[in-house]
Amino acid sequence: MDDKMSETLEQAAALQKLWLDSFGSMANVWSEYSSDSPPPEEMRKVRNGMLKGLSGTWDEFMRTPQFMEMMKVSLNGALDLKRMAREGMNKIHEQFEMPTKEDIDGILLAIRHVERRVLDRLEGVDDRVRNIIDRLEKLDERLGKMDGRAGKLDERVNQIDERIKTVDGGIGKLGERIEELSKAANRMPEAAVKRKASIK
Amino acid sequence: MSTATDMKEKAGIFGNLDSWQTSFLNEGLTNLRRLAALPGLPEKMARVRKGVTPREVVYEEDRLKLYRYIGQGEIKQKTPLCFVFALVNRPYIVDLKEGRSVVANFVNAGFDTYLIDWGTPTRAERYLTTDDYVNGYMHNVVNYLRERTGAPQVSLLGYCMGGTLSTIYTALHQDRVRNLILLAAGIDFATREGLINLWTDPRYFDVDKFVDVMGNIPAEFLQNAFLMLKPIANLIEKPINLMENIHKEEFVEDYLYMETWLNDNIPVPGEIYREFAKYLFQQNLLTKNRLPVGRHTVDLRKITCPLLNLMAKNDDLVPCSQTEPLNDLVSSTDKEKIIWPAGHIGLAVSGRAQKELWPRAVEWLAGRSR
Asked: What average pLDDT does range B343-359 have in this prediction?
């Protein structure tokens, strides 16, 4: 028995199990039927029980590899069919020199590639601009600090200026005093002559 | 002795017959009411609205529309909230009807609330990738919201596939996201609990062949795949339930709103479908911190913002095991998870979720949005 055959048999067995389980669970519910409640209510209970049972067996079945294999085969079949139909339509369009869906997709893809390249470049430019802004901000910070230092330097110069003024003032006063002293010194010989003469 | 037993049996039978008679009569009358309600069904279907909270379009890009919900009170929260929905359905499930609207919960609590509607993709969008959606559209929307509201960051609420997109966005742009709320978002695809995870196994599903032939993934394919998750419930139980309750006004209204949304599927761009199927469902790269998005690689450890992870206990589409691991994969210190007893949709719209879960989520976000 080849693989394909055993796969098919496994799928058939899974389907058989699904139906057997479904009918089994539906039949089981009837054993709970009671004549204590009115038939419409009992029927509703039975119906809900049957649906619950069915739901459980289907959920279990849809998780089996056999179900997923069947799903894969049917989906691939549908896709192959769609592809073939499209290829046929494309040939007809080409014969009539009309654009096909593939042509339109090709144009869209080309636009997309150009857009992607432009966006990538823009993102690169954006990064670079951000770097430049960062560096400018740092430069601003440094300039700010330098401004602060220059401000302090100005203050210092002002202080020195004031000191110089104070020293200038002191020197001026000193000059005045020296002048006074020299005047006093000049007056001293005259006074000494007068004193000598008076002593004589 | 035997006479007493006979009398008892007879009384039991007659007692039964009496209740049977009443039951048959009631059933018959109910059937008449059901029949009488049938002609009104098309009119009720025509009355179904797609979204109920007043809204306006504030931003558009290609097919994308960003809606802003208009509340009656003033905005109390500084950080805007943006809903990000999946690409497979229309987003109005979060604003389904009065009393069943997630959006209304946030709008009424004073949140500046927005919603991204991705629109219906055409063949021109078949090559759009996760990078285009996350680093393109979502990033532009977030930047727009920052500019519009003046808030430095935005809170994101992602539902289903929108939750996965929001997680990816937050990991790549953490500086722009203040809070992250996820609603049944697929993160860890290693689990085999959900049927979709099983069916996308690479041994049984050739995603490249599928996308190459189909281009965009047709809405009907997705719709049938969702129906097949619970075929008995969806194809048999649901119509029976409708017929049994067709005379009940509220049931029919809820049913019609729900079914309108469920059957309102849209196609998914081929390339993003290929990436999701291959990188997430088949290779589970997001939890391994190796998911490529354009030139970037998603590292979940870069998520540091507060995280609220909401999941549904009976979710057959995104089981809890697929969502729960996220809380251990992010670096956030402020993180919380809530497992709610509902299904994938019930998590958003069920009466109990509206009464208990959403006020809790609103409170959680309010404390983190000022």
From this structure: 93
A79 φψ region: left (φ > 0), alpha (ψ -120 to 50), beta (else)? alpha
Residue linked to tokens 């003032």? A169
Mean pLDDT of B291-303: 95
* Contact yes or no for A40 and B199 at CB 8 A: no
Element holding A28 (H helix, E strand): helix A3-30
The lowest-confidence range among B73-77, B144-148, B311-315, B328-332 is: B73-77
**DSSP code of B152?**
S
Assigned token pair, A51 = 């649906």
Task: Tell how far CA B79 is from the center of its chain.
Answer: 23
Residue position matching structure tokens 């003033």: B74
B315 catalytic? Reply is yes
The answer to the question of residue B89 being in a domain is yes
- B192 versus B356: the higher-pLDDT residue is B356
For B130-158, the pLDDT digits (tens) are: 999 999 999 999 999 999 999 999 999 99
Identity of the highest mean pLDDT range in A12-16, A190-194, B162-166: B162-166
Write out pLDDT tens, residues B20-79.
888 888 888 988 998 988 888 888 888 888 889 999 999 999 999 999 999 888 899 999
- End-to-end Cα separation, chain B, in angstroms: 82
pTM of the model: 0.82
Instruction: Verify whether residue B160 is a known catalytic residue.
Output: yes
The residue from B95, B112, B131, B160 that is catalytic is: B160
List pLDDT tens digits, range A50-104. Answer: 999 999 999 999 999 999 999 999 999 999 999 999 999 999 988 988 888 888 8
On whether ipTM exceeds 0.90, the answer is: no
* CATH classification of the domain holding B174: 3.40.50.1820
| C-alpha–C-alpha distance, residues B242 and B225, integer Å | 22
| Nearest Cβ partner for A40 among B27, B126, B240 | B27
Neighbours of B186 (CB within 10 A): 26
Is B97 within 8 Å of B53 (Cβ atoms)? no
Q: What does the alpha-carbon distance between residue B304 and residue B170 come to, in Å, rounded to a whole number?
A: 9
Chain position carrying tokens 């998005």: B293
For chain B, the domain total comes to 1
Q: Could you give the count of Cα atoms lying within 13 Å of A83 in the half-sphere of its Cβ?
A: 11
Domain ranges in chain A are 3-98
Radius of gyration for chain B, computed over Cα atoms and rounded to the nearest angstrom: 24
Range of the domain at B88: 55-190+286-366
Catalytic pick among B117, B305, B315, B320: B315
Chain Cα centroid distance, residue A96: 49
Contacts of B128 (CB under 8 A, 6+ apart): B121, B269, B271, B272
B116: which strand partners? B66, B84
Distance to chain B for A130, nearest Cα, Å: 16
B208 found inside a domain: no
Going through chain B in order, the beta strands assigned E by DSSP cover 55-61, 64-69, 81-84, 113-117, 154-159, 177-183, 291-293, 296-298, 307-312, 335-340
The answer to whether the beta carbons of residues B269 and B213 sit under 8 Å apart is no
Q: Given an 8 Å threshold on Cβ–Cβ distance, is A109 in contact with B198?
A: no
- State which H helix or E strand residue B103 sits in: helix B102-108
